[in-house]
Amino acid sequence: MMNQSHAETALSRAMIRWSLTKSTPVAETPRSWLFRVEQNGRNFAALKIIKPEASKEEGRGVRLLQWYEGDGAATVFDTHGDTIFMEWLDGGTLGEPVRAGKDDEGTIAIATVVASLHKPRPDAPEGLEPLRDRFQTLFDTDVRAWPHTARDLYARSAGIALKLFDKPSAIVPLHGDLHHDNIMSSDRGWLAIDPKGLLGDPAYETANIFINPERGDKIASDPKRIAARADILSQRLGYNRKRILGWAAAHAALSACWDIEEGKPIIGQLACLPNLLSAYDLA
C-alpha cells in the first residue's frame, strides 16, 4: 500500500508542477510506474515515477538520458526528485521487425543509435557505474551454480571478460542495457530508452544485442546471425570485431549469472553461448 500511495502523491505533484491535464497508467515494473500524460489536451508525454528502492540505479540512467539531449535517445523534458517528465514514444520496439525476420535492418538501426549515443559530448554525468563493477557478479559466481555441462562455458566467458578488462580501451559513458526492446520507434527515428548509466569500453555497448530480442532465441543463437551482427556492428561503428564478440560472450555469461542468482532458467543464454564463443575464437 505504501508504494502505491508514493506513486499517487508523486503523480498529483507532477500534474500540478508541469500543468498536466490527464494521466493514464500504462505500466508498473519492479522499478517504476509509467503514465501517459497530456498537457492541455495537446501533446502526449510520459511520466516515469521511480520506486524508492530503485532510485540509485535509475537515477544514473536518467542523468545519462538528460546528457544525450534527445540524440539517439528519448528526450527528458524535466525531472523533479524521482519523477521524470519525458517524451512519449509509442511506435513499438525494434524487437518487432527483428522477430519478423528483419535482423540485418535491426542491427543497422542499432549501430545508428549507438553512433548517436557515443558522440563526444562535454561534461559526462557524475556517478556512472564502472563496467568492471557491473561484472562483479560474473567473477563472484561459484562455477558449481552452473549446470554441470555448461561449466566450461562459464569458465571461458569469465576468462575472456578478465582479458578484456586487462586490455586498455577508451572509456565512455554507456547506455549499458541496449537491446532491441529498449529501442523504440518515433517520428525522430529509433530511440533508446531505459539506460543503466555505466562507464567503460564502447565496444561493450553492443553486447546485449547478441542474446536478444526477447522471444528471439532462435535468431540470437544462429551462428550466421551472430556473424552478420558482428560484421555490421564492426563495420559501422569501427569497433574491433573480436572485442565485440568477446563482450557478447562475457555479457551472456553475466546475464546467466544474474538469472541463476534469481532462480530463473538460463536456456536462452546457454543456446547462444557456445556459438558466441566459437565466433570469438574464429574472429
Question: Could you describe the 3D structure shown?
Answer:
- With 283 residues, the protein is α+β, with helices and mostly antiparallel strands.
- The chain has two domains: 86 residues, Phosphorylase Kinase, domain 1 (2-Layer Sandwich); 188 residues, Aminoglycoside phosphotransferase (APH), C-terminal lobe (Aminoglycoside 3'-phosphotransferase, Chain: A, domain 2), CATH 3.90.1200.
- It is 46% helix and 17% strand.
- It has a five-stranded antiparallel beta sheet, sandwiched between helices. A three-stranded mixed beta sheet has the order 6-10-7. It has a two-stranded antiparallel sheet with strand order 8-9.
- Helix 7 crosses helix 10.
Q: How are the SSEs ordered, and which strands pair?
A:
Blueprint: H1 2-17, E1 22-28, E2 32-39, E3 43-50, H2 55-68, E4 76-80, E5 83-87, H3 95-99, H4 103-117, E6 129-130, H5 131-134, H6 136-140, H7 151-166, E7 172-174, E8 183-186, E9 189-192, E10 198-200, H8 217-220, H9 223-237, H10 241-261, H11 267-282
Parallel strand pairs: 6-10
Antiparallel strand pairs: 1-2, 2-3, 3-5, 4-5, 7-10, 8-9
Helix pairs in contact: 4-9, 7-10, 10-11
